[in-house]
Amino acid sequence: MKLEDALTQLEELQRKMYAYDAASNALYLDGVTVAPKGTGEGRGVALSILAGERHKLFSAPEVGKLLEYLTKHKAELSRLVQRQVEELSRSYEQLTRIPADEYMEYASLTNEANEVWETAKEESDFSKFEPVLKKLVKFNQKFAKYYDRKKKPYDALLNEFERGVDMEYLDQFFATLRERIVPLLKAIEEKEQPDDSFLHKHYPIEAQKRFSDYLMEVVGLDRRHCTIGESEHPFTLNFNNKDVRITTHYQEEDVASSMYSVIHESGHARYELGIRDDMQYTCLAGGVSMGVHESQSRFYENIIGRSLPFIQAIFPKMQEFFPEQLNGVTAEQFYRAVNKVQPSLVRIEADELTYSLHIMVRYEIEKQLIDGSLKVQDIPETWNKLYKEYLGVEVPDDKHGCLQDSHWAGGSFGYFPSYALGSAYGAQMLKNMEKEVDVWGTVGKGDLSAVSAWLGEKIHQYGSSMEPADVVKNACGEFDPAVYADYLTEKFSKIYNL
Ligand code: ZN
């Protein structure tokens, strides 16, 4: 093989994989947004064939040989191609390490599990989900060994979602947060709650749609490259750095719900749109990790979107969209209402302060499940106990308890901590950004360009060309969970006059 030919093959391989992904994504997007309800079957056939073809393409022995050859000639490759070879080799090894029959069995199990979970949740009956969850846990314990035999099983799983993160790192992170958040929460509970009733007046969807367009404009999304659709759960889907789609879910009696989904997903979209051209159609296009992605979405949603300067900047315009609903309400009142702290049962409805506590419950349970010290049948009891301990709330049923999230049904163990890490990274990015940029001066004018430029330079442009830990270091410096705890303490002490 000549190096030149190998490089051509590498490029072709990655472009083909991009094409399969683009086709699957387009079908998926159609399915969850505009496709008629009765059309799922045919899409399912097409999607499973596309997934199979992609798998075949990438797991072929020739790909292994190609990657081996390029690894041998590493010194002659550009830095970006070196990185592509590294990433692809890692995925290739992963894919070929799990025996094909186990891989297939697991794929069909997660498919089944999702349906079982939906029914169990609807009926609020954990015992229905228990048998399939047991199998999923067993598989993950086994897969963890395939991923990395040298690591503790849960560490190996964590590493799949956030490379470089392990239990030692997370134990310390969560311990710091708990120590600081729990007393803060107790102090807040003694205080009077702000009035947020105006958030729950009637907000017609047509007006909310125009408001979404406005918010995307404020965040600086170029509508030639990013559109918004509607789906049951909001998400962001990226094709390439010229084509990203976001979705939201409108609720007529809750204006903040879609508002903050739009800002959150816009943060994900900015990341994807900001990745450099020279990484497109390769495995390096796309955000580097879940945690870093969430750091971006949560930065826009919470740190900027739920700040007083931002709300003051957009509030006059908001009152134009919703003149009756916001009549007599001030920007300051709106700010307090969208920052109301209230320990609750459901993670996705949690406020900025208590959110990490929801994650901690899941982290503790996953840790024990994977190391075998917690039995699947004891999840509900442990879940309810931890909610009482961390958040002070009584869980009335499994639907609002351990059956609320889809992650375990999808076979994801070790995914949750990324959400909390993302929030913490964001707080540290803010601290560094403030040294270089007049963050609040510009945001207070409704101008997010300086903030976005900073994030673009430190994070977005690199895509997956650096290790997640190096991206974090580049934007945050040495990671220190106390910075996030300080940010929360300062913000909520002010809001609640502590
Ligand atoms: Zn997100």
Note down, in words, how this protein is organized:
- There is one protein chain.
- The protein is mainly alpha-helical.
- It has 2 domains: 130 residues; 329 residues, Orthogonal Bundle (Neurolysin, domain 3).
- 64% of the residues lie in helices and 3% in strands.
- A 3-stranded mixed sheet has the order 1-3-2, with helices on both faces.
- It is globular.
- 37% of the residues are buried.
- The mean pLDDT is 95.
- Bound molecules: zinc ion.
- The site of zinc ion has 4 residues, from helix 10 and helix 11.
Short characterization:
The protein has 498 residues and is mainly alpha-helical.
Features:
single chain; 498 residues; mainly alpha; Neurolysin, domain 3; 2 domains; binds zinc ion
* Cα-atom radius of gyration: 23 Å
CATH class of the largest domain: Mainly Alpha
- Looking at the chains present, what oligomeric state does this protein adopt? single chain
Q: Which ligands appear in the coordinates?
A: zinc ion
String of helices and strands: HHHHHHHHHEEEHHHHHHHHHHH
Strand elements, count: 3
Assess the beta-strand content as a share of residues: under 5%
- The average pLDDT is 95
Which architecture of the largest domain would the CATH scheme give at its second level? Orthogonal Bundle
Task: Identify the strand order in the major beta sheet.
Answer: 1-3-2
Main beta sheet: 3 strands, mixed
Structural class: mainly alpha
CATH topology of the largest domain: Neurolysin, domain 3
The helix fraction, in percent, is 55-70%
Distance between the termini: 70 Å
